[in-house]
Amino acid sequence: MGRHKLARFAANQVARNVFERGKPHYETICGNWHETYFHNTNPIALELACGRGEYTVALAEKFPEQNFIGVDIKGARLWKGSQQCLQKGLHNAAFLRTQIQNIEMFFAAGEVSEIWLIHPDPRPKDGDERRRLTNPRFLQHYRNIGKPGMWLRLRTDSDQLFHYTMEVLQNEKITDLSYTEDLYESPLIADHLDINGEPIRTKYEEMFVAKGHKIHYLKCRLW
Questions:
Q1: Percentage of the chain exceeding pLDDT 90
Q2: CA 151, chain centre distance (Å)
Q3: Buried b vs exposed e over 155-176: b needs ≥16 C-beta within 10 Å?
Q4: Which residues contact 39 (CB under 8 A, 6 or more apart)?
Q5: Per-residue model confidence as pLDDT tens digits over 90-100
Q6: 14-63 pLDDT, tens per residue?
Q7: pLDDT, tens digit, for every residue of 57-88?
């Protein structure tokens, strides 16, 4: 393991905004995020498979009246977002290191108001369909921790994942569906602007856009 990773893991161990195995509250935070960490009753939004946490950081900065939690299993990645939030003094942001399929271990029913899926792994192989984060079994996980009518948002460059998700949603109880296959040519881009009015982009999206890929986006309410 590289020295950089070891240093990042060590930083995560002492960062107050990182929740991971072996740290205080990791096993007791479920249902207690407002009381234990945020010390407010503001709505909680999750960025699942957050990677470096670009959205968690940007949205927390833009919306101080909301709380944001980036979730990922890769500690060396979420370290980046954690450190940025600490440097910016963003107390309405946190990071949780866990597998997405274990999400119900960390959030109680009705604790989450919104979920963002930003360029998740599209899992293009047919055998990986159950691992797609918009598969019906994951949607049920989200419902189990979410408030009725919670927002689900997906941003992806994958035609396959986007169209797969649209098909899945036809058989789900949803409302207020909006979507575009070219986000940068859509008024829905307004959902993705940072505090300076610039589009929030992940490192990977910058590469996708440079290659000419169109960015797809959809949002709906889950019931």
A1: 92
A2: 12
A3: bbbbeebbebbbebbeebebee
A4: none
A5: 999 999 999 99
A6: 999 999 999 999 999 999 999 999 999 999 999 999 999 999 999 999 99
A7: 999 999 999 999 999 999 999 999 999 999 99
Lay out the sheet containing 93-97: strands in order across.
Answer: 18-19, 93-97, 67-72, 44-48, 112-118, 146-156, 216-222, 174-180
Domain ranges of the chain: 3-222
Catalytic annotation, pick one of 72, 121, 126, 176: 121
Find out whether 111 and 128 touch, Cβ atoms under 8 Å: no
Q: Is the pLDDT of residue 160 over 70?
A: yes
Contact status, residue 182 vs residue 215, Cβ threshold 8 Å: yes
Tokens of 171: 């058989």
Query: Of 167, 96, 98, 160, which is closest to residue 128 (Cα–Cα)?
Result: 160
- Indicate the CATH number for domain 3-222: 3.40.50.150
In this prediction the pTM is: 0.96
Distance between CA atoms of 176 and 192, rounded to whole angstroms?
18
Contact assessment for residue 85 and residue 54, using Cβ atoms and an 8 Å cutoff:
no
182 in active site:
no
State the residue for tokens 């940068």.
184
Residue 191, class by beta-carbon neighbours within 10 Å (0-12 exposed, 13-18 middle, 19+ buried)? middle
60: nearest Cα among 41, 48, 44, 49? 44
